[in-house]
Amino acid sequence: MKDIFRVLRNLSTVTLMTPIAATICFACWWAVSVSSTHAADDAEPEILNQAWRLAQGESIYRTIDEPPYVHTAYPPVYFAIVAALLKVTGLNYLPAKLVSFLSAISIGFALGALNRRWQGGAGRGWWVFFLLLLLPAFFFNAARAHAQMLAVALCLWSFVFFLRRDGASTIASALLAALAVYTKQTQVVLPLAMIGYLAYRDRARLWSYAVAFAAAALIPYVVLEYMTGGWFRRHTIELNVLSYDVQDIPLVLLHHAGPLFLVIALAGRDVWRRISERRPESIDFYFVGVVAATVIACGRIGSHAQYVVELCVVAAAMLLRRESSPKRALAVQAVLLMIYAPFFVFIEEGRFVRASLGAATEVRRIIETAPGPVLAQQAGFALFARGGIHVQLFHFTALARAGMWNGEKLRREIEQRRFAWVVTEFPIEEGRPRADDLERFTPEVIDELKRGYKRAGAVGPYYIYSAKEERTRNTRN
Question: Among 73, 285, 293, 435, who pairs with 193 as Cys (CB 3.0-4.6 Å)?
């Protein structure tokens, strides 16, 4: 502890250590977690699957009443970029992860541009970027096959152009904001916040921004709705309304945004002061909107690290608006992240990730010994062994519980032994699924798996089951 305080007293040492520590931690996380054919996170294969289908000319906004039972949670921009790369590389996680990584780097350039505008140089903006790179929620998504990092990068660059105030930049800002919304629909927070700010303080630019954004948002919407027969709206809006629990909000916020608490608290204090003095700026509107959206989103079932990324990025950008930075507070923040980030990389998340990647080759070897569909809790096994996912368990279990999809379809397929292999992260026969498992398998599905499948092996965190030779008849009415 004395050594930590000694380091804090030497602020220049902390300033120098932050970029070095961030680079090392991210490099270690990339080495630990990134593979071209496997991801420990179960959302990544579902997103890659949709990009792969798009690369093969299939529609990603289609009926959910016929197999494959797949749900496209996001608009098409990220999928389209990754699909274009997959046409060159073939089925592979690396292009999808590369898009997220380059998006994270572009956030660094945007922070540099903001600091150059407000303070006259890019240096502090890049230091703040490296502080963000020490945050597990940020570097986790920077190495993830997910739309979140690209969506936030587009929003931040939209804000950079918004601050320039000239007509061309205002239009460019609106267009980038629309592009962000078509990457991840919750990014609508930024354009709404900017419209609110313009209505309050700069009505001369209000109509040009609002009309440009409306045109850029509505025209693609009409086209997508027409081309998909209404399934674009159903997938991105209606089917995303899943169960909600307000009790999850503080847990998700504390776990994923909590490590950056000093930066977020400083940002909140600055916003409160300017609002109290009736001189709010555009970034204050943005921050308030993001806080509200983040708090609301964190109560949704399946809330994870991506839900806090934009909040953390905007809070970090708020530091650049200050004439002078609170060096000691930021040193404390940096040191705390330097302690927590390695713990996350090697212990908290890293242990499961290493076990998952270590088991992947053997699990694939087993399920490739016999043909037939694969039902896998980690859907990447089905994607890379069979070229596609038959059912997205998390989404369709949630939809079944909400009465928006007939869950009996999956139960009947299991009863009929349609799946050659079933891969879970819990032993089915022991009947002790965790809360995460129950988000992907209903009790009825688990009971049917017990009746029809037997364990064929266990590798690392995965349990592999094959169909029993004689089907037990279903005696239920």
Answer: 285
